[in-house]
Amino acid sequence: MNSSSTLSPVYGLMAEFESPTELVHAAKAAYEAGYRKMDTYSPYPIEEAAEAIGSHHNRVALVVLIGAMLGMIGGYSMEFWISAVNYPLNVGGKPYHSWPAFIPVTFECAILGAGLAAVFGMLALNGLPQPYHPVFNSPNFIRASRDRFFLCIESQDPQFRLSETKGFLEGFHPVEVTEVPY
Amino acid sequence: MPVQDEIDVLPPKGVRPPLMGPGQDFGTVTDRVAGVILTRHTPVFWMIIFAIGATLVGMLTTAVAYLIFKGTGIWGINIPIGWGFAIVNFVWWIGIGHAGTLISAILLLFKQGWRTSINRFAEAMTIFAVMQAGLFPLIHTGRPWIAAYWLFPYPNSMGVWPQFRSPLIWDVFAVSTYFTVSFLFWGIGLIPDLATMRDSAKSMVVRRIYGLLAMGWRGSAQHWNRYETAYLLLAGLSTPLVLSVHSVVSLDFAVSLVPGWHTTFFPPYFVAGAIYCGFAMVLMLAIPFRYLYGMQDYITLRHLQNCAKLMLATGLIVAYSYSMEAFFGWYSHNKYEWAMVLNRMHGPYAGYYWTLVFCNIIFPQLLWFNKVRSTPWMLFIVAVDVNIGMWLERFVIVVMSLQRDFLPSSWGMYWFTKWDVMTFVGTMGFFTLLFFLFIRFMPAISIFELRTLLPQSKVKE
Q1: pLDDT, tens only, A92-146
Q2: SS3 breakdown of chain A: % helix, strand, coil, rounded to 5?
Q3: A116 and A64 assigned to the same domain
Q4: Is the pLDDT of residue B1 over 80?
Q5: Are the Cβ atoms of A43 and B459 closer than 8 angstroms?
Q6: How far is CA B147 from the centre of its chain?
Q7: What are the E-state strand segments in chain A?
Q8: What is the domain range of residue A27?
Q9: A128 at B interface, C-beta within 8 A
């Protein structure tokens, strides 16, 4: 990270579009032009937009798998330790370690672990909850949760030059291009 | 002010009603759904229903307080019928929840677009119904704080632990996991809409509250990407979960040796029944909601028709299960099983059984008619009828098997008391109260998913 970019007075440049098609078109072109530190903001998920900025894969599935494994192992070991080690109780002559009877609870614990991992893993990977973020300083940004589509090229990008990048974004005929202050 | 059913005009034969009314865009769907919440004006009908709900909660509190003071003797339960209203109501409420998960998870996996405008409140229905259900086993113990040590595994000074070979403990895990995962699913679905609420609110206080709940959601493409993966995975997890919950509930019965309970087909039979009455409850909530809030553009006749069709299909599975129950009793050549079947049909509670057959098998056949499926008030009547029928089914299963088992010396009768009724009606009030609080303060239709239904939401090549 060179010092000139960290001292930059703006977080980035925000271009506002009226349709998802324009947004995806601009995002693709920006990626092809070599910009990497950028993000799009939209009122509903647009798969093409994520692909356009080079964000295909995520690690949510891995986190969920780990959650499920932990839940499963935790659930079964709890049952084994309680029923066969710490508190062995003869119920109808069944073995202390009656594994078939332990499966329903193991299954439920696996689902519970996976479900918790899915939600909290997703939030953690997204860095939420986040009390402050500079994009909200953009004047019209409240419409990102309503009916407008935004592309933000961040000043941290090595290719970012305020005037040139602004000109580049204006080439896609957005409603407006604004500087996003920190 | 209720809006007239303008779009409830049936399209010509062979054409299905649309998923959304005409003339909608990103702005209108946002304003319509958020407008219900972001207003100082609370409708009069809301106040009235809320007051009724609050009164019934008062009654519930009284009934539970007296129960804890006196003990379960104030209920109609006795020996041999130790599982009265409490278990009947538990199974009924937990079954109602199942349609919510079916709509939100299973229909998502099957890419059914019509789930989108009804999933949010169906999930809320699930959570509130499971809350009512969970109340019953707890108060059925009479002393819930003492019951904790054999329900939940926690280290206690007595050094005792739950008994994991019992379906009752499986049930504790199944129901509590079901509640938690349903709550997470509902909560994760709300995040983008809470951000919309934050950005649409005029008042600073309201903006702060929704802003806090939205956790700083900003609709970033990378966030949406992870969000969609998490949402899909939760749907995939909820699908086996919801099937397991009522299966485990049915094992509470099926693992015993009691005639009428000891059958292997209980799990699918219970799951079908759960979805059957769950869809009836979805219709009982959706029909007044769309009328009172004028949401006919989003919850269209197509949604009602599809719910009706699912009700008809699951109702037929339930009808098949009833006939199989009788058939197994006869085919088993087990005199206790056969006596059980005859007792249902001709015993002291035969009236309950035949009413159940009427409510669950005969009356819902009206759903074969397109006219009935497309007329909201007729559907509402069928839905009420199915919910009554499904409650009777659980009464028949729980009470009639316990009433007469192997030895005539241990036969008995069960009559519920006013405290049983007060508790049951009280939970209905609690459910209504929670549901109306939800539609006043949270977007009852998923706004961001409604946007994806619009043609302009698609990226054109």
Answers
A1: 899 999 999 999 999 999 999 999 999 999 999 999 899 899 999 888 898 988 8
A2: 50, 15, 35
A3: yes
A4: no
A5: no
A6: 26
A7: 10-17, 38-41, 149-154, 176-181
A8: 3-57+141-181
A9: yes
CA distance B388 to B385: 5
Among B181, B216, B218, select the one facing A112 at the smallest CB separation. B181
* Nearest in space to B199 (alpha carbons), one of B461, B443, B457: B443
Q: How many CB pairs under 8 A join A and B?
A: 201
pLDDT of residue A4: 46
Contacts of A119 (CB under 8 A, 6+ apart): B184, B187, B188, B230, B234
Partners of A152 in the beta sheet?
A14, A39
Q: Are B215 and B190 in contact (CB under 8 A)?
A: no
The tens digit of pLDDT for each residue in B34-70 reads 888 888 888 899 999 999 999 999 999 999 999 999 9
At residue B312 the predicted structure's pLDDT band, cuts being 50, 70 and 90, is very high
Any domain includes A107: yes
For residue A8, pLDDT beyond 70:
no
Helix (H, G, I), strand (E, B) or coil at B269: helix
Contacts of A85 (CB under 8 A, 6+ apart): none
Domains parsed from chain B with CATH numbers: 26-455 (1.20.1630.10)
Residue of A nearest to B251 (CA): A104
**Is it the case that residue A178 has pLDDT exceeding 80?**
yes
pTM: 0.92
Q: Domains in chain A: how many in total?
A: 2
Q: Among A125, A153, A168, where does a domain finish?
A: A125
DSSP summary character for residue B220:
B
B2 pLDDT band, cuts 50/70/90, is very low
Task: For residues B386 and B382, give the distance between their C-alpha atoms in angstroms, rounded to a whole number.
Answer: 6
Residue A5's CB is within 10 A of a number of other CB atoms, namely 14
